[in-house]
Design a protein that fits this description.
2 domains, five-stranded parallel beta sheet, binds phosphoric acid mono(formamide)ester
Amino acid sequence: MQNFTSIKDAYNIQNLVNEALLMKKMPHSDKHLGKHKTIGLLFFNSSLRTRLSTQKAAQNLGLEVMVMNVGADSWQLEMNEGVIMNGDKAEHISEAAAVIGQYCDIVGVRSFPGLLDREEDYSEKVLNQFMKYTGKPIISLESATRHPLQSLTDLITIHEYKTVARPKVVLTWAPHVKALPQCVPNSFAEWMNHSDVDFTIAHPKGYELAPEFAGDANICYDPAEAFDGADFIYAKNWSSYQEYGKILSSDPAWMVTMDKMKRTNNAKFMHCLPVRRNVVVEDAVLDSEHSIVVQQAGNRVWAAQVVLKEMLLTQMRTESPYLF
Ligand code: CP
């Protein structure tokens, strides 16, 4: 695995899931793989889980870890080419990324969309500029359109908790006070559409995901009906793709409640976190046996670790082909 920015970089997702679950039992079995190597984790936005789980995964593999909040800890970066840099951006991505590449063997980047210009966000400018100029493998820590480490985590968790061979998995839109990106639902849909699950996306009209992400998923416009017989309920808010970045609904009927959970096949409740209690999901669900959100967040370590291991192995094969 050269880079990890989407499901396209995962050669065999079932193998990744199986290996991640083995790692969970033996976290330090590859602790020499990253010896004398360094990963840089660059954050353009706040993070709790991605930051700490990727750091822990890297340390389990023996990697040295450097973390930087871009802009807050460093110069503001100019991402556009050919601009006259007489504004507030002191450094161009071409030098900054190339310099970071001098210090790191793998670089992780988290960027968020602006939610103002769909074309701009879906061009993945920040991620692509790092890929262009760093000269080192890039792992996405969430980008403008995808969150692949979260989605691999989600698949690992579904595999771990499923009680039927082909579970019914429901991604349900839920209300929120802020306009949020489509990265998590896009990515979750992309990974579920490549997995052996019965997959439904439930949302109010106007919240359709981009067709390349929704794929052939069942679509449901009723806030309760999709829960019928579900094995997993995955809640997430996102802003509209069609009316880009807008909040079109705040209907509390879309909040996940215990009443709706009663329609499921004793479903597990999942969310990528952070989650707003009693807006997205009521306390009664989060504090019940249904909820596996903490266990799900725990699995972020194994998703990151299996991906970093694959990237390190690819790097070693390139650097020392005679060893393989
Ligand atoms: N789920 C997730 O990516 O969490 P953080 O934003 O805290 O990293």
